[in-house]
Amino acid sequence: MTCRYCILHELGHCRKTNPMHNEPKYLRLKNGTVLRLTFDCANCQMLITQ
Q: What is the sign, positive or negative, of the torsion defined by CA atoms of 5, 6, 7, 9?
């Protein structure tokens, strides 16, 4: 799934303004599901895969 909402931007770690931050690579949900996050900063998009 691709979304325009970027968790890096919300955390204040946007690569466009500060490329030195380490981004979260995985998102763990309450039910135990782990989602992999990939960032396409050139297009301001975040890709979520399982």
A: negative
